[in-house]
């Protein structure tokens, strides 16, 4: 049994278009400061018609595995709350697109934004049992709220693919977790709706309560002071929410916790919007890509998914981690997005298909994988 298990490498991808929140503010007659300062968001990613969670996941995962041609992936866990089928796992579409061999266990996990963390924890268990194998965990989501709703400025899209293995090059996940589950109706998406229902204020309170609940469970199981954590990475539905959680943790523990402990983890999410399951892992990517050398430092992760489940866990940044990262590619991924105006964004949102009758989708993006449409009620994809 190996105990030194964690995130060996990661890669991120997002959608083709981006909407500046200034454009949304102008169209809605809202002071843009409400979005920039009030929510801590500047822009959000908007998918093109030939993109979905599978294409974003495939882009991230194929880049990741290209750096590890000798990988030993034995399990694929696809975490999403934007599933493309009620039965077939999005992971199976992904598996085919990136050309994995047949002898792989492939599943989809769901519990709102928390599912990526459930995937990581399952992967750690798998590697503890089979230390020579690796698990591909991909978190991929599209946050699409109703037009003109208060959730609209907190939309976004993105995928993070992570290779979980023994003796990881980036972050070794430490054994103990703090857990918290409570049945709360703060945010949900019924089967017949393409956008979620949200109790905004309740969702923020439930997030804080679950976060602190997971912290209390953690400290009851492991002796660790809040000052033993060098950086915190929170789930970021909008970056101001991470600041609120950080302040709540400081009040709860009675320890002053400076903003510098979370600041670097928020640079990508401000520009990306909410990527649900991938949001906290975009936070991790931003933190690892930042200039600060974190070798040997402890990261504390607060994962939250509405409904609600939260988990606090820690990881130690590994010696030499910087040599394995490609920060420039992540920045390029964000800056390569095509900026759209408000009418274009609105038309894209309104054109979103919610039925699976047959239709073709014209190519829009230059991304390596694209969704081509539905034929005989089957979703089809193409590799460029
Ligand atoms: P709202 O009603 O539009 O916003 O909804 P508000 O009126 O509460 O204002 C937001 C902030 O802007 C406030 O800051 C205002 O003061 C400030 P706060 O007081 O809270 O610090 N503000 C201004 N600041 C500067 N200049 C101004 C100005 N005007 C106001 N002129 C809400 C906000 C987040 C509720 C809404 O966007 C929403 O419903 N979003 C979706 C739900 C959500 O993200 N909830 C977060 C917790 S739940 C979660 O994280 C799970 C989730 O990711 C889903 C999953 O798990 O799958 C969502």
UniProtKB/TrEMBL annotation:
<keyword id="KW-0808">Transferase</keyword>
<dbReference type="Pfam" id="PF01154">
    <property type="entry name" value="HMG_CoA_synt_N"/>
</dbReference>
<protein>
    <submittedName>
        <fullName>Hydroxymethylglutaryl-CoA synthase</fullName>
        <ecNumber>2.3.3.10</ecNumber>
    </submittedName>
</protein>
<dbReference type="InterPro" id="IPR016039">
    <property type="entry name" value="Thiolase-like"/>
</dbReference>
<feature type="domain" description="Hydroxymethylglutaryl-coenzyme A synthase C-terminal">
    <location>
        <begin position="259"/>
        <end position="323"/>
    </location>
</feature>
<comment type="similarity">
    <text>Belongs to the thiolase-like superfamily. HMG-CoA synthase family.</text>
</comment>
<dbReference type="InterPro" id="IPR011554">
    <property type="entry name" value="HMG_CoA_synthase_prok"/>
</dbReference>
<dbReference type="GO" id="GO:0004421">
    <property type="term" value="F:hydroxymethylglutaryl-CoA synthase activity"/>
</dbReference>
<dbReference type="InterPro" id="IPR013528">
    <property type="entry name" value="HMG_CoA_synth_N"/>
</dbReference>
<keyword id="KW-0012">Acyltransferase</keyword>
<dbReference type="InterPro" id="IPR013746">
    <property type="entry name" value="HMG_CoA_synt_C_dom"/>
</dbReference>
<feature type="domain" description="Hydroxymethylglutaryl-coenzyme A synthase N-terminal">
    <location>
        <begin position="3"/>
        <end position="167"/>
    </location>
</feature>
<feature type="domain" description="Hydroxymethylglutaryl-coenzyme A synthase C-terminal">
    <location>
        <begin position="177"/>
        <end position="249"/>
    </location>
</feature>
<dbReference type="Pfam" id="PF08540">
    <property type="entry name" value="HMG_CoA_synt_C"/>
</dbReference>
């Amino acid at each position: 049994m190996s105990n030194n298990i964690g995130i060996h490498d990661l890669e991120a991808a997002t959608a083709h278009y981006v909407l500046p929140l200034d454009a949304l503010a102008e169209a809605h007659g809202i002071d843009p400061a409400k979005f920039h300062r009030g929510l801590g968001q500047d822009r959000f990613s908007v998918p093109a018609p030939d993109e979905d969670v599978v294409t974003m996941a495939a882009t991230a995962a194929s880049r990741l595995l290209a750096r590890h041609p000798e990988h030993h992936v034995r399990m694929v866990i696809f975490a999403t709350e934007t599933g493309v089928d009620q039965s077939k796992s999005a992971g199976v579409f992904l598996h085919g697109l990136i050309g994995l061999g047949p002898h792989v266990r492939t599943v989809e996990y769901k519990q709102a934004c928390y599912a990526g963390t459930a995937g990581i924890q399952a992967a750690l268990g798998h590697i503890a049992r089979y230390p020579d194998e690796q698990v591909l965990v991909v978190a991929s989501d599209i946050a699409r709220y109703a037009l003109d709703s208060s959730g609209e400025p907190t939309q976004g899209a993105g995928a993070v693919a992570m290779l979980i293995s023994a003796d990881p090059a980036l972050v070794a996940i430490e054994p103990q977790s703090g857990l918290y589950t409570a049945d709360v109706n703060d945010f949900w998406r019924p089967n017949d709706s393409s956008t979620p229902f949200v109790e905004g204020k309740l969702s923020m309170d439930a997030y804080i309560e679950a976060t602190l609940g997971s912290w209390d469970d953690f400290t009851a199981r492991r002796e660790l002071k809040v000052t033993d954590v060098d950086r915190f990475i929170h789930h970021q539905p909008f970056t101001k929410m991470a600041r609120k959680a950080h302040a709540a943790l400081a009040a709860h523990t009675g320890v002053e916790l400076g903003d510098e402990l979370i600041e670097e983890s928020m640079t990508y999410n401000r520009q990306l919007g909410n990527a649900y399951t991938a949001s906290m892992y975009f936070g991790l990517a931003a933190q690892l890509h930042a200039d600060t050398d974190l070798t040997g430092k402890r990261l504390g992760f607060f994962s939250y998914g509405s409904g609600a489940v939260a988990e606090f866990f820690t990881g130690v940044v590994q010696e030499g981690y910087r040599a394995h990262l490609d920060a420039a590619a992540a920045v390029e991924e964000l800056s390569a997005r095509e900026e759209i105006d408000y009418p274009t964004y609105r038309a894209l949102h309104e054109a979103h298909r919610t039925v699976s009758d047959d239709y073709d989708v014209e190519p829009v993006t230059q991304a390596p994988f694209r969704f081509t449409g539905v034929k005989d009620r089957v979703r089809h994809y193409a590799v460029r």
